[in-house]
């Protein structure tokens, strides 16, 4: 059985990653990058976030160690996206 703390963390991180994806969409629009682009670095981050978002609700993250890895992924993506927002504020 998955501990409640893990389930709760998964839900919070799922929401956080969904918000990051919305931020990525806004940044891509501001930068004039096609929403279906798959070549630009931000598009690669977007694709990785989509995969992670999908995997969160599956069996990929069932322990606190898994959650720690997921948090690190989230923090890294958030830092990158915040830097892009700062550099491309419009």
List the helices and strands and how they pair.
Blueprint: H1 4-31, H2 41-56, H3 64-87
Helix pairs in contact: 1-2, 1-3, 2-3
Q: Could you name the key traits of this structure?
A:
single chain; 90 residues; Helicase, Ruva Protein, domain 3; elongated
Helix content class: over 70%
The low-confidence runs, each spanning 5 or more residues with pLDDT under 50, are none
Cα-based radius of gyration, to the nearest Å: 14 Å
Q: What structural class is derived from the secondary structure elements?
A: mainly alpha
Which CATH class?
A: Mainly Alpha
Q: Output the CATH topology.
A: Helicase, Ruva Protein, domain 3
List SSEs in N-to-C order: HHH
Distance between the termini: 47 Å
Number of DSSP-assigned strands? 0
Number of helices: 3
Mean of all residue-level pLDDT scores: 93
Proportion of residues in extended strands: under 5%
Q: What is the 3D shape?
A: elongated
**Count of all domains:** 1
**How is the biggest beta sheet arranged?**
none
In CATH, the architecture is: Orthogonal Bundle
